[in-house]
Amino acid sequence: MIRRAWLVALRETRADRRHPDGIVAGITFMAALVLLESVVVGPQVARDATVAAALYWIALLFAAMVTAARSFERELEDDALEAVIALPGGRDALYAGKLVALAGTLAVVAAVGGVLQIGLLDLDVPLAGHLVAAAALGVLGLPAVVVLDVALTLRLRARAALVPILALPVLMPQLIAATNASAAALAGEGPTSLAWSALLLAMAVVYGAIGLTIVPTAIE
Amino acid sequence: MTTTAFPRVLPLRIRPALALAAVASALIATAMALVWAPTDAVQGDVQRIMYVHVPSAWTAYLAFLVVFVASVGWLWSRRPVFDAVAVASAEIGVLFTGLALVSGSLWAKPTWGVWWTWEPRLLTTAVMFVMYVGYLLLRSLSHDVARRATRAAVVGIVAVVNVPIVHLSVTWMNALHQLPTVLRPGGPALDDRMLATLLLGVAAFTLVYAWLLATRAALERARQDRWLALG
Fold first, then answer.
1. Range(s) of the domain holding residue B59
2. Of A4, A68, A157, B98, which sees the most CB atoms within 10 A?
3. Nearest-CA neighbor of A33 among A56, A65, A66, A67?
4. Is this prediction's pTM over 0.90?
5. pLDDT per position as a tens digit, B5-40
6. Number of domains within chain B
7. Are residues A169 and B131, on separate chains, in Cβ contact within 8 Å?
């Protein structure tokens, strides 16, 4: 299964390189949200460590949904999904491969969005290492839930509305932990940031394990 | 979809008896809550909302646990009865979660001074409510019986995580909501008559739940049969 999952992840990465519409959509969407949110609350409020972190993670979460949806749409357009699913253990491999590929794509989106937000809002980053750790661990937890929900709603016309409805409540603890970890890093509170980051790691493991356990029945 | 001769949710003869027991216990519990139970020394009569609020929350927990068990049952066996029980229980669970939220809000205004506050128990309950509304929404958007059941079962399994989170949120975080008064170490911290009334209320709500579940699940089984007959 690991080999097949790796092949799916490689294929996803290759497809992203040839047609980077998913990653471009994710980055554009994230940038637009960061800009919009900052303008709506005002630059002074948006510079507050907690507000900046919350805006960042909300934007990244929505960007993750856009990117994951695009990835599956490509499969549907090319009729490639059925071929992968038809393989023995295909559903497991498809889910795990998408998970790895989306985590990689989101890492790029998160990095670009983070640099953009720090630059636009002129944020002080006293603990850059802690911030990177929080971002990396936060990104790890998102794909498990987002890919599962996109897979569940894959053949439904109301997918665009359903994915956030299903994913947001499940990801609320993740969003809180990621926001707190990042805000603590921006405020120079190292131990607090690390404690929240450890929680993010635990959540990524739990979400991934749940996803891998039930996903074979979810992908059609 | 698999068709099986799995037994109906509850034999037709039992359901009227269940309805009778539910109505009788609900009437007795109402009388006890309004007349027999003593008035709270601090909160006054407004505390009597507890006799609706706590049983509603209990019933919601029970309903979502049944959704979980039925969802596992569907994925395990593909027997349509499990999907019928899951959807019936989810609908009832959403109804009672809504009732718990509304009764809690009515109770909060005179005691806390606000209809709503950003407090762990309230927030986690609202999230649980939204998740199961999402569950019902997901079901409503598909007409393929088997696919719909499978999708819903996955959400039904994931969403049950909310139940312990909601219940334990008041002990994990600093909360305005009071700590558990019945299910707590050292026994219930409640006047005997209040406790008896509350327990009868919980029993009455559980019977109402069981009756609604049996009736709604039977309706769903009839729908499934009709869809299968239509092909």
1. 14-34+48-230
2. A68
3. A56
4. no
5. 455 556 667 888 889 999 999 999 999 999 998 888
6. 1
7. yes
Please give the biggest Cα pair distance in chain B.
63
In angstroms, what separates the C-alpha of B131 from chain A's closest C-alpha?
6
Tokens at B72, concatenated: 């596992």
- What would the two tokens of residue A57 be? 């993670």
**Does a structural domain hold residue B153?**
yes
Answer yes or no: is B2 within a domain.
no
Following DSSP, what letter does each residue of chain A receive, concatenated?
-HHHHHHHHHHHHHHHHH-THHHHHHHHHHHHHHHHHHHHH-HHHHTSHHHHHHHHHHHHHHHHHHHHHHHHHHHHHHT-HHHHHHSTTHHHHHHHHHHHHHHHHHHHHHHHHHHHHHHHHT---S-HHHHHHHHHHHHHHHHHHHHHHHHHTTT-TTHHHHHHHHHHHHHHHHHHHHHHHHHHHHTT-HHHHHHHHHHHHHHHHHHHHHHHHHGGGT--
Give the SS3 label for residue B7.
Answer: coil
Would you say residue A184 has pLDDT above 60? yes
Count Cβ atoms within 10 A of the Cβ of residue B172 and give its class: 0-12 exposed, 13-18 middle, 19 or more buried: exposed
pLDDT for A68-85, tens place per residue?
A: 887 777 777 666 777 767
**Torsion of the alpha carbons at B131, B134, B136 and B142, rounded to the nearest 10:** -150
Using alpha carbons, select from B133, B147, B1, B137 the residue that is nearest to residue A160.
B137
Task: Evaluate whether residue B193 is within a structural domain.
Answer: yes
Residue type, A61: L
When CB atoms are compared, the residue of A152, A165, A168 closest to B151 is: A152
Separation CA B72–CA B68 (nearest Å): 6
Evaluate whether residue B30 is within a structural domain: yes
Does B142 contact A156 at a Cβ distance shorter than 8 Å?
yes
Q: Would you tell me how many other CB atoms lie within 10 Å of the CB of residue B201?
A: 26
Of A156, A168, A210, the CB nearest to B141: A156
